[in-house]
Amino acid sequence: MNKKFEMFMNIVIYLAVFILAQFFASYLAIFVFYIMNINELKSFTDIVYLQEEITAFISQHTPTIYIISFVFSVLGYYMLFKAKKKNVVKEVGFFKIPFYKVFILFFVGVAANVVVDFLLDCIVYYFNLEHSFAKHNTLIEGILSTNNVLLLLLSTGIMYPVLEEVIFRGFIFNELKKNISTTKAIGIQAFLFGFFHLNPIQGSYAFLLGLFFAYAYLWTGSIWAPIVLHIGLNTYTVIMNKFPQLSLNSTLHLVLSVFVLIAGTVIIYKTKIERQDSNELKKSS
Questions:
Q1: Dist. CA 189–CA 217, nearest whole Å
Q2: pLDDT tens digits for 86-134?
């Protein structure tokens, strides 16, 4: 089999498992909705209202749907890698990184969130995209609408970042790197990461973040780097949405975030140099 065709099929399978897990979780939620409202639905005729009720139910239970989707995905990938007789931990690169770098990565993720939000606001203002941005805000508010903050942090803040990084950086990026140049691999996995957010605004900043996460993965050699970055980014979104009183002065916040983002990125990049020096020492000895 042609290597590039095999690469393409592997990527399709990785994405298919992810998509199917999301579908199963969503349809399970719809099934639960029908069971809970079975008596009322027997005489229900307003289809539009029913669709609105289902959408509201799914939004309210998004964290639970994410957790179920996570479980289905993990089971799917476990069976896939077992069939291939490969160790998913080694394939993806779950290698330890120092605790202080975990701390730095988390706050770099937070800073990236603030900077991306500022850039989005600028784009919306200068290109009159208020209508499109309103749809984006509605989508985010729907995802964060539940009052169970702990469940939201567990699902959106931790579990989904882990899952997405393993899929897009661990599986897809590594698959691409084996067959094409690293630069092309970075671009393609970032495009797929943006595309699968299924929203032009989300997709645009997901693409940029996908580039950053891939470089963090390359520089550190560990999937934990983009995972922690992603967790920091998503956790900050959840906390600021639920506790807006914690936000700082916008100008000060932005300046601090830019500083943390730049300084943190330099520290992450230095990990690459440290790894190269360590490898050279091993070779020379």
A1: 12
A2: 999 889 999 999 999 999 999 999 999 999 989 888 887 787 777 767 7
Give CA–CA dist 258/23, Å, rounded.
38
Query: For residue 104, what are the contacts with CB-CB under 8 A and spacing of at least 6?
Result: 264, 267, 268
Query: The tokens 């993965």 sit on which residue?
Result: 217
d(CA 134, CA 124): 10
* DSSP one-letter code for 178: T
- Tokens for 140? 């985010």
Reported residue count of the chain is 285
To the nearest 10°, report the CA torsion of 172, 74, 143, 242.
Answer: -110
- DSSP secondary structure string for all residues of 20-83: HHHHHHHHHHHHHHHHHTHHHHTT---HHHHHHHHHHHHHHTHHHHHHHHHHHHHHHHHHHHHH
Q: What is the pLDDT of residues 176-194, one digit of tens each?
A: 999 999 999 999 999 999 9
Residue type, 207: F
Q: What is the CA radius of gyration of the chain?
A: 21
Residue appearing with tokens 């050699």: 221
**CA–CA gap between residue 162 and residue 26 (Å, rounded):** 20
Domain boundaries, the chain: 3-284
DSSP states of 255-278 = HHHHHHHHHHHHHHHHHHHHHHHH
First to last CA, the chain: 40
